[in-house]
């Protein structure tokens, strides 16, 4: 008889927990934590001009590319990079600048730089991230 009580009790508890989850999700609108890459602004990584001569670039790193892949700004721009990763750790170094970041899942890393000299600035991943690591790059084009 006690086995029956235990099994029935366990079934009752599981039903209660399931009902609690359903009520929480649909009735109370409780959302489980999501990935930073699934929410704005990182769901649509892009270059934004926030003021004259000031830009914010939201960058998503993932195996094996950066998005956006090409960043165009006018010479003299002050550019803030917000960097996240969609999968593993990546590096983010902009050659000939002092920008050297890590892209870490769940973390937003930030750097700011002024591009005075026109030209192309290569962005490389400098943290080994798998078989496509050597081909993971992007560039800033300063016009
Ligand atoms: Cu990404 Cu190496």
Which helices and strands occur, and which strands form pairs?
Blueprint: H1 2-27, E1 47-51, E2 54-62, E3 65-67, E4 70-73, E5 77-85, E6 90-94, E7 100-103, E8 109-115, E9 119-124, E10 137-142
The structure holds dinuclear copper ion (CUA).
Describe what you observe in this structure.
The longest helix is centred in the first third of the chain and has 26 residues, at 2-27. The N and C termini lie far apart (82 Å). A hairpin with a 2-residue loop joins β2 and β3 (65-67). This protein has 143 residues and is an alpha+beta fold. Helices cover 18% and strands 41% of the residues. It has two domains: 1-32; 36-142, Cupredoxins -  blue copper proteins (Immunoglobulin-like, Sandwich), CATH 2.60.40. It binds dinuclear copper ion. Dinuclear copper ion binds at residues 64, 90-91, 125, 127-129, 133, 136.
List keywords for this structure.
143 residues; Immunoglobulin-like; 5-stranded mixed sheet; elongated; binds dinuclear copper ion
Summarize the entry for a quick read.
This protein is of the alpha+beta class and 143 residues long.
Helix content: 10-25%
The ligands found in this model are: dinuclear copper ion
CATH class of the largest domain: Mainly Beta
The CATH topology of the largest domain is given as Immunoglobulin-like
Number of helices: 1
Main sheet: strands, sense, barrel: 5 strands, mixed
Overall pLDDT metric: 94
Distance between the termini: 82 Å
Shape type: elongated
Number of domains: 2
- CATH architecture group name of the largest domain: Sandwich
Number of strands: 10
Q: What order do the helices and strands follow? A: HEEEEEEEEEE
In CATH, what is the homologous superfamily of the largest domain?
Answer: Cupredoxins -  blue copper proteins
